[in-house]
Design goal:
Low-confidence stretches: none
Number of domains: 1
Strand content: 5-15%
Mean pLDDT: 97
Radius of gyration: 17 Å
Order of helices and strands: EHEHEHEHEHEHHE
Bound molecules: NADP nicotinamide-adenine-dinucleotide phosphate
Structural class: alpha/beta
Length: about 250
């Protein structure tokens, strides 16, 4: 039987207690990676992801750290190396999204988004790349929204646009060290962030489905499959890329 494609690799996924991050952690583990499941608040859910991986014969640990708090990021990366001896794959996924029209935007809401979605990603990449002594793959989960004009999402879209630019610069800077850096850009995906829980109406969901070429909502597993590709050696010649994973939204 052939070896699993991520066998021998160690991965750290931020915001992996729920939604897309949880699906990525499960998929990387199913493909053979040892996985660190980061969470900020949802300890029970993070432990459930770890339990699912262990039950399937994989290796995983949960690690609490708020990606919006700089002092917690380096220890998170160090805990991954301590748990599994090295780091090969780092998935910047933890992010927040509030629907805010311009008149609702404040300095505080701007800072809250940028602290997690941009500063957290950049410091995460900094400490993760320093730990990737044998090369590696950094996957920045951004969003198809940075290439759309979505009213009520100016702050969130700005953070994702920043991630797009950061990714290309870091790909150029880290390439000589054998570290690939890519954007994985989901479209509308069924998670807590994008549901009735977050104020999304059924009508808006129908409109978004109609905008996709493939005529459905994305599921977290759809995004996880693309993450597994970017993490693997199948993507060894792919860096600085912006991988649309939206079912063809607004083509
Ligand atoms: P979600 O359902 O809201 O889940 C967010 C995850 O991030 C949770 O596990 C949460 O953990 C964690 N998190 C939030 N703030 C954190 C922090 N400060 N530190 C550490 N972890 C934190 O979101 P999602 O829909 O899965 O989104 C995942 C990624 O995909 C994000 O980057 C998002 O921007 C992107 N995306 C999503 C969609 C979509 O339609 N869903 C579309 C495009 C892009 P705790 O509960 O433990 O805090």
């Amino acid at each position: 039987m052939s070896e699993k494609k991520l066998a021998g690799k160690v991965a750290l996924v931020t915001g992996a207690s729920r939604g897309i991050g949880a699906a990525i952690a499960l998929r990387l583990a199913a493909d053979g990676a040892k996985v660190v499941v980061n969470y900020a608040r949802s300890e029970k859910e993070a432990n459930a992801v770890v339990a699912q991986i262990l039950a399937a014969g994989g290796a995983a640990v949960a690690a609490k750290a708020d990606m919006g708090t700089p002092a917690e990021i380096e220890p998170l990366v160090a805990s991954a190396v301590k748990a599994f001896g090295k780091l090969d794959v780092f998935v910047n996924n933890a992010a927040i999204m509030q629907r805010l029209f311009l008149e609702q935007v404040t300095a505080e809401t701007i800072d809250a988004h940028f602290n997690v979605n941009v500063r957290g990603y950049l410091l995460g990449a900094k400490f993760a790349s320093a730990a990737m002594t044998g090369g590696g793959s950094i996957i920045n989960v951004a969003s198809a929204i940075s290439r759309m004009a979505y009213p009520g999402a100016v702050v969130y879209s700005a953070t994702k646009g920043a991630v797009d630019v950061m990714t290309r610069v870091l790909a150029a800077e880290l390439g000589p060290k054998g570290i690939r850096v890519n954007v994985l850009a989901p479209g509308s995906t069924r998670t807590d962030m994008n549901s009735e829980k977050s104020g999304k109406t059924k009508d808006e969901e129908r409109q978004e489905i109609a905008m996709t070429a493939l005529r459905r909502m994305g599921e977290p597993d759809d995004i996880a499959a693309a993450a597994s590709f970017l993490a693997s050696d199948d993507a060894r010649w792919v860096t600085g890329a912006w991988l649309d994973c939206s079912g063809g939204i607004r083509l």
